[in-house]
From TrEMBL:
Residue intervals of the Type I restriction modification DNA specificity domain: 298-397
Keyword Hydrolase carried by entry: yes
The protein's name: Restriction endonuclease subunit S
Source species of the chain: Aeromonas hydrophila
Similarity-based family: Belongs to the type-I restriction system S methylase family.
Keyword field: DNA-binding, Endonuclease, Hydrolase, Nuclease, Restriction system
Gene3D superfamilies named in the record: DNA methylase specificity domains
Length: 467
C-alpha cells in the first residue's frame, strides 16, 4: 500500500472537535448545505431502503437477512440521491448515510436534501458522517434519558459543521477509500468463510456426540422418530418439555423502573455464542420485549426469525441478564446436565426440526408449545451426560480458539479501516496523487462483506423504525 503524505498547509477548523483540515477545504454548518424535507409516499411501492451503521443507505432487497416487512409502506418518507438519511434513534450508533437511490425510508427517520445538487459526493458523506469524531458530536447533541434511546433532532444535526473538500478531491477520496475497502472486504470474507468452516466442524463433533454417545460399540435402537433416527439403546426419548421448564421466570410490570440489566436480544446471539457485548439498560426505558429472566445453566433459543439459529447456553452468572420474549428459555431439570442441554439444542437435528416447523416466510416463528413437544434423546445419568460434555469441549477447544483468533483479526482490520477513513476524509493524508493499480478492483458485491452479519437483526423495526 502506498504511503501517503500530508497536505502542505492546514488551518484550525471552527469546531474544536475537528482536527486541523487542509487550508483550501470549506467548512460550514450542515444547514448551509442541507434542509430537512418531509415528502411522503402515496403508494408505498418505491424501493424500500435500509439504514445501517456499516453500509449506510442501501436497498433492503440487497440485504442477505430476511427482515420484518410492514403491511403497507404508504406514508413512508421519500428520499432522493444525495439526501442524507438519519435513523433518529440510532444516530449515536452512526446509523445514517447519504442515499444514492430513489426510495422510501421509515417515517421516523430524518431526511435532509442538499440546497445545491452535486455539492457533495454521497459516498464521501457516507464516510465522513460515520467517523468517530462525528458520532461523538451526535451523542453530545442528542437528547434522551438513556444512551440507547438518544434522539438526534433536525435542528441539532443541521447545526453540526461539515467539511467540504473541492468536489474533484471528494471523488478522489471516494475512489481511494473504495479501493482500500475492497481489499479489506476480501480479507473479512475469507475470515468469515474460515469461521463458518470451523463452526461446521464443531457442529459435527456435537452432532455425533449427542446422538451416538462415546461408546462406538453401543447397541442402537430405533427412536421411532424419523428425523432423530437411531439412538443408543439405554438412552431415554421424551418430549423436550419433560426434560426442561420453559420460560420459568419473567419480569413483571411492577419491576422497579431503576432496575438495570444486560439485555439479550435476537441480534446479540449467534449459534452457541454471544455475537456482541450486551447493552446495559434500565427497566423504565427497556423494550417491552425485555422480559425473560435468565439463570446460569439456562439455554435460550430464538422462536422468531428461526433461520438465525440464535442459541446460547448461559455459562456465566446471570443475576442481571434479561432476554427478549423472542427467545424460549429452557431451564434443565435435575436429571439433565445444563451444558449438555445446550449442545442438544445446537445440534443439527434439533435446529433443522425447528426450521421445518416454523411458520411464515418473511418472519418465520415457532410456538413454544410446538418446541416443547419435540422428542429429545438423553443418556439416563448425569454422569454420562457430563462425560459427553467433556469430550465435546476437549475436541472443540482448538476450533473455538481458532474461531476466537479469526474474529480478533476481523476486529483489528475494522479498527484499521476506521482510522484510515478518518485520516483521509479529514485531510490528514493527501490522496490526490493516488492512482489505482491492477489489484484495486472494486464492485458492490465485494464491498458487501464490510457489513456485519448481524447488522440487519433487530426487533423493533415495526414500532421504532429501526434497522
Amino acid at each position: 500500500m502506498t504511503v501517503m503524505s500530508a497536505y502542505p498547509n492546514y488551518r484550525q477548523p471552527k469546531m474544536r472537535w475537528l482536527p486541523a483540515v487542509p487550508e483550501h477545504w470549506n467548512e460550514q454548518r450542515a444547514k448551509t448545505f442541507f434542509r430537512e424535507v418531509d415528502e411522503r409516499s402515496k403508494t408505498g411501492q418505491e424501493e424500500l431502503l435500509s439504514v445501517s451503521h456499516l453500509t449506510g443507505v442501501t436497498p433492503r432487497s440487497q440485504k442477505k437477512v430476511t427482515m420484518f416487512k410492514a403491511a403497507s409502506y404508504v406514508g413512508s418518507k421519500l428520499c432522493q440521491p444525495g439526501d442524507i438519511v438519519i435513523n433518529t434513534l440510532w444516530a449515536w450508533m452512526a446509523a445514517l448515510g447519504a442515499s444514492r437511490h430513489v426510495g422510501i425510508v421509515s417515517p421516523a427517520y430524518g431526511v435532509y436534501r442538499p440546497h445545491i445538487t452535486d455539492s457533495f459526493n454521497p459516498a464521501y458523506l457516507d464516510y465522513l458522517l460515520r467517523t468517530r469524531a462525528y458520532v461523538a458530536e451526535y451523542i453530545g447533541r442528542s437528547t434522551g434519558i438513556q444512551s440507547s434511546r438518544l434522539r438526534l433532532y433536525p435542528n441539532q444535526f443541521l447545526d453540526i459543521a461539515l467539511i467540504q473538500p473541492p468536489r474533484p478531491e471528494q471523488d478522489q477520496i471516494v475512489a481511494y477509500l473504495r479501493a482500500q475497502d475492497a481489499h479489506i472486504a476480501r480479507f473479512i470474507k475469507a475470515k468469515r468463510d474460515l469461521i463458518k468452516l470451523l463452526t461446521e466442524q464443531k457442529l459435527r463433533i456435537i452432532d455425533h456426540a449427542v446422538t451416538r454417545g462415546l461408546d462406538p460399540s453401543v447397541t442402537l435402537k430405533p427412536s421411532s422418530i424419523e428425523w432423530l433416527g437411531e439412538v443408543p439403546e439405554h438412552w431415554q426419548v421424551k418430549p423436550l418439555k419433560r426434560w426442561v421448564r420453559l420460560n420459568a421466570s419473567t419480569l413483571g410490570e411492577k419491576t422497579s423502573p431503576d432496575f438495570e440489566f444486560r439485555y439479550v436480544d435476537i441480534g446479540s446471539v449467534q449459534t452457541g455464542r454471544l455475537a456482541k457485548e450486551l447493552e446495559r439498560i434500565r427497566f423504565e426505558s427497556a423494550p417491552s420485549r425485555a422480559r425473560r429472566v435468565l439463570s446460569r445453566g439456562d439455554t435460550i433459543i430464538s422462536t422468531v426469525r428461526t433461520y438465525l439459529k440464535a442459541i446460547w447456553y448461559v455459562s456465566e452468572d446471570a443475576d442481571d441478564l434479561i432476554a427478549s420474549t423472542g427467545f424460549a428459555v429452557l431451564t434443565p431439570g435435575k436429571s439433565v446436565e445444563p451444558e449438555y442441554l445446550g449442545y442438544i439444542i445446537q445440534s443439527s437435528a434439533f435446529v433443522n426440526r425447528v426450521a421445518a416447523n416454523s411458520i411464515g416466510i418473511a418472519y418465520p416463528a415457532i410456538a413454544e408449545t410446538v418446541l416443547g413437544r419435540f422428542p429429545v434423546a438423553l443418556p439416563p445419568t448425569v454422569d454420562e451426560q457430563q462425560a459427553i460434555v467433556e469430550h465435546i469441549k476437549t475436541e472443540s477447544t482448538p476450533l473455538d480458539e481458532a474461531i476466537a483468533r479469526t474474529e480478533e483479526e476481523i476486529r483489528l482490520i475494522r479498527e484499521y479501516r476506521e482510522r484510515l477513513i478518518a485520516d483521509v476524509v479529514t485531510g490528514q493524508v493527501d490522496v490526490r496523487g493516488w492512482q489505482p493499480g491492477p489489484e484495486d478492483v472494486v464492485d458492490d458485491a465485494t464491498l458487501a462483506a464490510l457489513g456485519d452479519e448481524q447488522e440487519d437483526v433487530t426487533e423493533e423495526e415495526d414500532s421504532d423504525g429501526e434497522d
